[in-house]
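Sorry to interrupt, but I need a hand with the structure work. It will help me judge whether the discrete encoding reads sensibly. Write everything out right here, beneath this request:
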Amino acid sequence: GDWSSDVCSSDLTPKSEKRKAQLLRDIDRKFENPQAHLELARIYQSDRMWSQAEQEYNACLSFSPANRAAQAGLVKVTEQGGDKDKASNYAELYIKQVFASAAGSFQLGLAFQDQQLDDYALRCYKQALHLTPDSYKVNRQIGYYYLTKGDKEQAKIYLSRSFTINPDQSDVAGQLGRLGIAVKIPP
């Protein structure tokens, strides 16, 4: 026979293909598994398979409606698939859903930032900050957000505020030092 058929094809299969096959089996066994749909959506998204990713994000959301990662992912793949208006409508809907929840706004902001949807992320962080102005976590996150954007002045403002609220943050103290702000770390 043909000796090449003895070569194990799984050695040639990318890890994402193996994982995709495993997730499809998991979903086949238990369709109402939001985590499997979410992970599969992310694989489809990384493979630029927008409609399959959208379908899986929607499946995840049907079983876990407040899944922030799936919400942000759905916005991103809808945008990547070319429907910017629909993506914007999804984003507005999700941002409105968490308007009264600082934690929800913060989590959605993190999910948007993870999808590089920075404008939406910042809106969520500011919404969370409006609800909890004394949250060192929200102030820190906004500070780091501005730092990644290269806006050192805004970063200083929010990181300083975060450190004032909770001086027990060595990472923030170090960052403020690198931004030229001297801070005293409590003993």
Observations:
- Confidence is low (pLDDT under 50) at residues 1-12.
- The first helix runs from residue 15 to 29.
- The two ends are 75 Å apart (CA to CA).
- The CA atoms of residues 136 and 166 lie 6 Å apart.
